[in-house]
Amino acid sequence: MLQESLAYSGFAVKDLTAAKEFYENKLGLKVDQDNMGTTLHLGGGLSVFVYDKPDHQPATYTILNFPVDDIDAVVDELAANGVEFEKYDMPHPQDEKGILRGKAAGYGPDIARFTDPSGNIFSVQSN
Description:
Blueprint: E1 9-13, H1 16-26, E2 30-33, E3 38-41, E4 47-52, E5 62-68, H2 71-80, H3 102-105, E6 111-115, E7 121-126
Parallel strand pairs: 1-4, 5-7
Antiparallel strand pairs: 2-3, 3-4, 6-7
């Protein structure tokens, strides 16, 4: 029934202007805005719709993951752009950069999480 639908995902933010600035200037994403919201253009021709919701409450889970080839280089570049990486109390600690080294621990990918200005959780993770 829906297998041929060109589905897309979306999420809310509390301040669309601040979010757009963050996605463009801190993450380096291509962003389009119209009167309905903002579209983030991702790799592979994918997109995510972002809309303003004044009473927004961020999810307690990661809403968008960015697989990358070199997590150290990407974390360094994002940190240089002002992105702050989250530290969580987890069974496997993160390093000084905020990267959980899952590959070395046999615990999944290397992953580092950060939030947007609305508190939405994003991650970069090793391929």
